[in-house]
């Protein structure tokens, strides 16, 4: 690896000695095969050396910046340790290398490198402004080398990063030459035909275009000189990438882009005369050439929010060709050249107005002024105080305010995700809803169908979206609970054959100490008030209004299903008689235990208001009893009326030939029995599976199970 004179111009003394030592070290590592090659087959240490040379040419280089650039690939590939770099080249160099390698994980996590959120996160995670510069230069170096590569997929990936991440950052930093090169090269690799079509057209017209610019500028030059103005002019052809963007936007070919080149007039004017002289030039040019009012841009009277000042006009020059003219002063041009113009935003790449842009806007000036690392750290701290960026497991990137919690992130993904959120997994760790997120976290939201928003969630969420959705969900839940409680109360009244009376209910609510009807029903829904207690008070109020003497009241416990639910022969009003023709009550047979006629059963009032019929030996019965005993309803079957029920059986046995035919044969011989499905799997000489049949009652079921067990090879038959 040969020394580079451009680099040596920027370092001296001990730094130059260390530079030669670094080259010897890298050459030895490369010759020993410890560094290997990259995805394009290049020696990565050679790419790093070229990157350092480019930085020296375009930006100026310091020892720490130089050595961090040279050693990044060697450390990344394990050929050198951070400790050895720190020992031989300083802790500042080692810190920069670690920061560069720290950005690798971002690219592995997300494919959306072109988003505004990713750009902001990239700047935040880079931390030191020099890391951004190194990676921009590395992108340019790599783009120059991959022209003839056979790895087209890798070429496309690198080109997309260059176009959507590094080119906009280079523009913001005022590195316009590198920005244009990145854009043109990425277009060359991503849109090959378009690139060469435009290039050929420009080459064919270069001589005539240069001659035209000279004819256009000459009379302007004469008029401005005669007016006594001090200035200089630049004429430039727009980049291939810029022309391509205009072609797509205007839906025209190259010859249809009427402003292929632009003229910039830069005045040397005192500060107090800047505006006056700019408008004077404007007046002279528009007197000479017809202007297009729609293309007029006045950023003198009202500068852009980023400080950009200039006058842009488009005029019809000789041969009826449109030419863009930019008028500004030396001071205004300096501001623009330091990156504050941010053309990449107002030309269609919409970005945030947040800290990332302010951070970048000052980097070029900081470099030129030789500012120290402390300024970079302060700018990083300022940026991080505003927002955090977190990934989903799929690599999607979300922007949230600082202090945002797991709950905020869940609602940012989707309202349903937020409503069901129970916590999150970040890396290998489980965290709760209150956990505050950090930039770069990869967060997997954990949910449960049993979860629902709570009132205290309003104290956890910090984003407006999350708090709004929580309030909405709480309001809807409260309305649903009130409706359920009202329906439950009215159903119990019907079971007791109590006449519903609005005035009586209002007096009851008052006697129970509730100020509003909503509070009353809400208390029932939250189980703060037992519905049977409310009914007893309602009956007492009803007797009082009729002038009747109170009789002994029944306790609410009489209406709660006892532990022994086998005796379901009571004729009390609160016993639900199950009949397929039952009207006025919404009930369904529970899918968890599939009760049929003959099973001992009970009813359970569901959260939707209907009643689910369960077997008394249902595996969920105990949990339901502990959770909401007041929702239990005694139930029994009406007389059998020929209805059929779906039953699933689990069958296990030896995998003998014809076993399935034998099973289906037994069922087909049964009268009024229909087989709906059968699913059998075999493994290691055994079979197991499920079959679903339609039958009338438990007697038929018991008989069927007995017949199936008698089939040769069948070991066991159980009801699911």
CATH topology of the largest domain, what is it called?
Hypothetical protein af1432
Mean of all residue-level pLDDT scores: 79
What's the number of extended β-strand segments?
A: 20
Number of domains: 6
Helix/strand structural class = alpha+beta
Strand content: 15-25%
The main β sheet shows up as:
6 strands, mixed
The top level CATH class name of the largest domain: Mainly Alpha
Based on the structure, what is the oligomeric state of the protein chains? Answer: single chain
Low-confidence stretches: 338-362, 364-385, 549-573
Overview of this protein structure:
It contains 28 helices and 20 strands. The chain is α+β, with helices and mostly antiparallel strands. Helix 22 packs across helix 25. It folds into six domains: 5-191, Orthogonal Bundle (Hypothetical protein af1432), CATH 1.10.3210.10; 194-342, 2-Layer Sandwich (Beta Polymerase, domain 2), CATH 3.30.460.10; 386-462, Ubiquitin-like (UB roll); 472-558, no CATH class; 560-637, no CATH class; 645-719, ACT domain (Alpha-Beta Plaits, 2-Layer Sandwich). Strands 1, 2, 3, 4, 5 and 6 form a six-stranded mixed beta sheet that branches. A five-stranded mixed beta sheet has the order 12-16-14-15-13. It has a four-stranded antiparallel beta sheet with strand order 18-19-17-20, covered by helices on one side. The model is unreliable at 338-362, 364-385 and 549-573 (pLDDT under 50). A hairpin with a 2-residue loop joins strand 18 (674-683) and strand 19 (686-695). 32% of the residues are buried.
């Amino acid at each position: 690896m040969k020394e580079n004179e451009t680099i040596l111009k920027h370092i001296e003394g001990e730094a130059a000695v260390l530079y030669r030592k670094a080259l010897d070290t890298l050459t030895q590592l490369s010759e020993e095969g410890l560094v290997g090659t990259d995805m394009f087959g290049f020696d990565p240490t050679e790419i790093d050396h070229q990157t350092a040379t480019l930085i020296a040419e375009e930006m100026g280089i310091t020892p720490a910046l130089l050595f961090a650039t040279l050693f990044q690939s060697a450390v990344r590939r394990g050929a050198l340790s951070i400790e050895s770099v720190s020992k031989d080249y300083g802790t500042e160099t080692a810190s920069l290398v670690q920061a560069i390698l720290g950005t690798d994980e971002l690219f592995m996590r997300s494919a959306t490198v072109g988003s505004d959120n990713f750009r902001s996160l990239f700047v935040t995670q880079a931390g030191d402004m020099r890391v951004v510069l190194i990676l921009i230069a590395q992108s340019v170096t790599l783009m120059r080398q991959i022209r003839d590569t056979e790895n087209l997929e890798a070429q496309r990936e690198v080109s997309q990063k260059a176009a959507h991440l590094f080119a906009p950052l280079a523009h913001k930093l005022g590195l316009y030459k590198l920005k244009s090169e990145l854009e043109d090269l990425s277009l060359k690799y991503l849109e090959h035909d378009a690139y060469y079509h435009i290039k050929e057209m420009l080459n064919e017209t270069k001589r005539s275009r240069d001659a035209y610019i000279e004819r256009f500028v000459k009379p302007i030059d004469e008029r401005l000189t005669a007016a006594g103005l001090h200035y200089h002019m630049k004429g430039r052809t727009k980049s291939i990438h810029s022309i391509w963007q205009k072609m797509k936007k205007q839906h025209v070919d190259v010859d249809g882009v009427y402003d292929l080149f632009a003229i910039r007039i830069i005045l040397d004017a005192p500060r107090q005369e800047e505006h006056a002289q700019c408008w004077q030039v404007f007046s002279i040019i528009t007197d000479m050439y017809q202007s297009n009012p729609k293309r007029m841009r006045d950023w003198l009277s009202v500068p852009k929010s980023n400080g950009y000042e200039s006058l842009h006009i488009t005029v019809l020059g000789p041969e009826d060709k449109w030419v863009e003219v930019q008028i500004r002063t030396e001071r205004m041009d300096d501001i623009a050249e330091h990156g504050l113009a941010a053309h990449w935003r107002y030309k269609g790449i919409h970005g945030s107005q947040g800290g990332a842009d302010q951070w970048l806007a000052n980097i070029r000036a900081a470099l030129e002024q030789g500012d120290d690392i402390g300024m970079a750290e302060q700018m990083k701290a300022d940026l991080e105080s505003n927002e955090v960026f977190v990934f989903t497991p799929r690599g999607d990137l979300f922007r949230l305010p600082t202090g945002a919690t797991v709950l905020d992130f869940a609602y940012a993904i989707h309202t349903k995700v937020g409503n069901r959120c129970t916590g999150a997994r970040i890396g290998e760790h489980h965290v709760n809803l209150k956990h505050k997120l950090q930039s770069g976290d990869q967060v997997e939201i954990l949910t449960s169908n049993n979860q629902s928003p709570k009132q205290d969630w309003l104290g956890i969420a910090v984003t407006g979206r999350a708090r709004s959705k929580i309030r909405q969900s709480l309001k809807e839940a409260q309305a649903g609970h009130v409706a359920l409680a009202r329906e439950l109360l009215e159903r119990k009244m019907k079971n007791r054959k109590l006449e519903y009376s609005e005035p009586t209910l209002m007096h009851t609510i008052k006697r129970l100490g509730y100020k509003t009807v909503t509070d009353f029903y809400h208390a029932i829904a939250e189980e703060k008030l037992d519905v049977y207690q409310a009914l007893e008070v309602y009956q007492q109020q009803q007797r009082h209004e009729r002038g009747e003497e109170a009789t002994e009241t029944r306790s609410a416990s009489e209406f709660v299903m006892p532990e022994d639910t086998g005796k379901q022969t009571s004729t009390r009003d609160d016993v639900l008689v199950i009949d397929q023709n039952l009207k006025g009550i919404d009930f369904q047979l529970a899918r968890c235990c599939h009760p049929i006629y003959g099973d001992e059963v009970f009813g359970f009032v569901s959260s939707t208001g209907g009643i689910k019929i369960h077997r008394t030996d249902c595996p969920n019965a105990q949990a339901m009893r502990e959770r909401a005993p007041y929702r239990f309803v005694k139930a029994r079957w009406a007389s059998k009326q020929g209805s059929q029920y779906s039953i699933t059986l689990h069958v296990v046995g030896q995998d003998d030939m014809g076993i399935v035919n034998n099973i289906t044969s037994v069922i087909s011989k049964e009268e009024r029995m229909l087989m709906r499905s059968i699913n059998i799997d075999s493994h290691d000489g055994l079979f197991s599976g499920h079959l679903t049949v339609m039958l009338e009652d438990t007697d038929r079921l018991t008989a069927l199970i007995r017949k199936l067990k008698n089939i040769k090879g069948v070991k066991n038959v159980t009801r699911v």
